[in-house]
Design goal:
By secondary structure, the chain is of the alpha/beta class. 40% of the residues lie in helices and 16% in strands. It is built from 12 helices and 13 strands. The chain has helices at residues 9-16, 20-27, 35-47, 53-61, 77-91, 106-118, 139-143, 168-181, 197-212, 230-241, 255-268, 301-317, and strands at 66-71, 96-101, 123-126, 148-151, 162-166, 187-191, 222-224, 249-252, 277-279, 296-298, 327-330, 332-336, 353-357. The strands form 3 sheets. The protein has a 6-stranded parallel β-sheet with strand order 2-1-3-4-5-11, with helices on both faces. Strands 7-6-8-9 form a 4-stranded parallel β-sheet, sandwiched between helices. Strands 10-12-13 form a 3-stranded antiparallel β-sheet, covered by helices on one side. Helix 10 crosses helix 11. The longest helix is centred in the last third of the chain and has 17 residues, at 301-317.
Length: 358
């Protein structure tokens, strides 16, 4: 027997012990059904991720040339690079890309997912919002065998999924170790929310490097930020530098915070790197423009996008079934520049260290 992959009005009717026609009229707003019953039916339909029959039929039978992308902030270089990578890969195969952004809000991500589902996209690429802890809004895609690939930000190991990412723990370990090698001993870490798996892993890598070097993890030096904006980075730095024992290095998990911190430090007379080393993450083009140049880790956004697009096309081509899930892990690089050159081994404007690690 063929397994049913979607909820029907008959399922809703059976659960509420009413006729299918009552469900149909309620969902279409017919005035013959009481407001109380309409409300009850709509609530159940949402809970069961019911898709109206015409849309469900299209999802099962029709193949659109559209791929949906949900990202967090289009105006941030790293995420725009992911989008560019997706577009380059799929547009060459005759596919169109519909791009929506969540602004790191769970509610917006849910609405984005619904909009793309109703637009009959053939597949979905997602970089999760910082707030997202529940993944039920992706269930209709899974149930209707619409492949979903998570790019950079993915659910934790408890959720089986396709994903393209980097080794966040190792990357953060190498970055923190670089600061330690430069003589830093009080290293602050500006992270995203640790329920988001990639930031949890970066905190683990940071902690591992400290522990191996005989340094104590001090929670007052760790900040979990809501959106990792430049403003949040400066606010955290103000607080950190007012401590009785301020940090001698700050490891940021994006470059926009790190650059804003450099500008703030220059405005208040904090010398970089003599008093404070600054480490970024992503290696945005502005790393080479800001003075002093910013040390950062290459997070290959464009390649993440290309690999996500390629994986999604493979899943579409081979008629994806939810049995085997793929994780693609890409290499990263640490590029040392002036902002961490406490031992004076970097020549002005030129990277002195280029390490590729897996």
């Amino acid at each position: 027997m063929k397994k049913k992959t979607h909820v029907t009005i008959y399922d809703l009717a059976a659960e509420l012990k009413v006729s299918p026609s009552t469900i149909s009229r309620a969902l279409s707003g017919h005035n013959s059904i009481s407001k109380e019953k309409v409300k009850e039916i709509i609530q159940l339909a949402k809970k069961r991720n019911y898709i109206p029959n015409d849309i469900a039929s299209n999802l099962r039978k029709a193949k659109s040339n559209n791929i949906g992308v949900i990202t967090t902030w289009i105006n941030r270089t790293f995420h725009s690079e992911i989008i560019s990578g997706v577009e380059e890969e799929v547009s060459n195969k005759g596919m169109n890309v519909i791009i929506l952004q969540s602004h790191d809000r769970y509610k917006d991500e849910v609405e984005n997912a619904k909009a793309l589902l109703n637009s009959r996209v053939s597949g979905l690429i997602v970089s999760l919002a910082m707030e997202t802890k529940n993944y039920d809004h992706f269930e209709p895609f899974f149930r209707n065998q619409i492949p979903v690939v998570f790019a950079d930000r993915a659910p934790g190991p408890e959720i089986k999924c396709h994903q393209v990412l980097i080794d966040n723990e190792l990357t953060a370990y190498v970055a923190t170790k670089h600061l330690i090698d430069q003589g830093c001993r009080r290293i602050a870490h500006l992270s995203g929310q640790k329920h988001r798996e990639n930031y949890k892993e970066r905190i683990q890598g940071y902690n591992k490097a400290l522990r191996e070097s005989g340094l104590r993890l001090d929670k007052k030096y760790i900040y979990e930020l809501a959106t990792k904006s430049a403003e949040e980075g400066v606010m955290a730095t103000r607080e950190l530098m007012s401590l009785p024992e301020p940090p001698d290095a700050i490891f940021c998990t994006n470059d926009s915070m790190a650059i804003a911190i450099i500008q703030f430090c220059k405005s208040v007379g904090i010398k970089i790197p003599e008093q404070l080393c600054i480490m970024g993450f992503n290696n945005d083009p502005t790393c080479k423009i800001i003075e002093p140049n910013l040390t950062s880790t290459v997070n290959p956004g464009f390649e993440i996008g290309k690999e996500s697009g390629k994986l999604l096309l493979d899943l579409l081509h081979f008629n994806w079934k939810p049995k085997e899930y793929r994780t693609i892990t890409l290499d990263t690089q640490l590029i040392a520049r002036e902002s961490t050159a406490r031992l004076n081994f970097v020549k002005k404007g030129k990277p002195a260290l280029l390490e590729t690690f897996q």
